Amino acid sequence: MATYTKLDDIDLSAVAYHYGLGPIRLAPLPGGAANSSFRVTAASGSYVLTILDNHDTAGARRLAAHTQALFLLGVPTSEVVPTVDGAPITRLRGRGAVLKKWIEGTVRQPLPLAHLPAAGRMLAELHALPPASPGLADIPVGTRRLTPQHQALITEFTDKEFAAWLTTHLDHVHTAEAANPRTRRVVHGDFFDDNIVVRTDGGLSLLDWETLTLDDPLLDLGAAAVGVGREAGLLAPERLRALVSGYEQVAPLSDADRADLPMEITHAALIIAFHRYRRHHIRFPDPRKSGYHMEMVTFVDSVAEGTRALGGANG
What we know:
This protein is α+β, with helices and mostly antiparallel strands. The chain is built from 9 helices and 13 strands.
């Protein structure tokens, strides 16, 4: 588990020196499951300093390089600020750190319905990037999926009823996917509202590229349905329609895609359910979150009804 960096751990003079900022102020930012982020205020403007608590140096460099590559490709995301020596990251107390320009706006949870079409368009535009685009040739493949090693762990879960539910649904998904493989594209992997900034100009920006990977864009759209399409824990038809309508302005779905979307929404929820159970019951047991995975069980039960109005989706 990452040992998070606290404000008192950061040498302000070192940050200012590495980036040529002069006097600065830091304030911690909320969120972040693996890293620590701070707002930096300097005479030259505002920035976000992220201490990559859960990355080695090579991983920190890759994350910074991918983020900057996406920015240069026109994806609405943070611009990486190089050090005075031109490096994409620096080292602070032995950990990699990246500085990005601050995006004026707010993170709204849940993302308002009115913004969901724009969110769908933003996701489709990401999926439209050629996988061999400059700076993206080395992104990994399929890292958001459960590995065979992950699936072997399910048999060890203490909650046998949940383990059986998870295994049954995963078997169905894998059989269906094997019969209809799709082309891998650049996908975000964590399209949740806490990674979306509603900018002051009314547009949206997408943050957090740690889960960037090459995979099925329909699975990524399914994950987005989990991330921004829920209401009271269930898949909300109106929210899903708004998300998909925006997506289709850029990348229309075929009848086959529409038929498979409920399955991929379910697949995304299964992946989340697995990781929640493993994290809160096995890796870092936390009685306060011991039932967190069950939210996805309830959500999966709502998928068939939530997708019915899309047309062509058969659940």
